[in-house]
Amino acid sequence: MRPEFASIRKKIQTLTHLLSREARAIRLLDWKEIEALAARKLDIVNQLEPMLAHASAISVEELHAVQKIALDNAGKLQMLKEGVARARERIAEMTDASELVGVYAMSGRPVKARFSCANDRNA
Fold first, then answer.
1. Residue 14 CA to its chain's centroid (Å)
2. Which long-range contacts (CB under 8 A, 24 or more apart) does 42-46 make?
3. In contact, 51 and 10? CB cutoff 8 Å
4. Which residues are CB-neighbours of 115 under 8 A, at least 6 positions away?
5. Which residues contact 2 (CB under 8 A, 6 or more apart)?
6. Rounded mean pLDDT of the chain?
7. Domain parsing of the chain, residue ranges
8. With contact defined as beta carbons under 8 Å apart, do 111 and 105 qualify?
């Protein structure tokens, strides 16, 4: 967790603890404790305001950075899709089975293809 967010979390936990102490003081009608806790809560809230503003500004900057990365990746993905489409068109244009086998052989992959013609199916 980032340090800014960790300190905000700690302040919120402190506020939660003070609220439970305040509830106990109210039940006991301990006015001095209630006033002291109210002052501490106000102090913490005043500390939290600039911290939250800073954290939200950081979050917006990070969001813009993530959006830029996402747009870059979308552009790269589109280029890959276009490359795959061109490769599929090229394979579709290949009519000679030996030419297709040659492409597979050049790729270094084992050729395990079975080619058949429509006439083979009718025979």
1. 30
2. 44/11, 44/14, 44/15, 44/18, 45/15
3. no
4. 97, 100
5. 58
6. 76
7. 3-122
8. yes
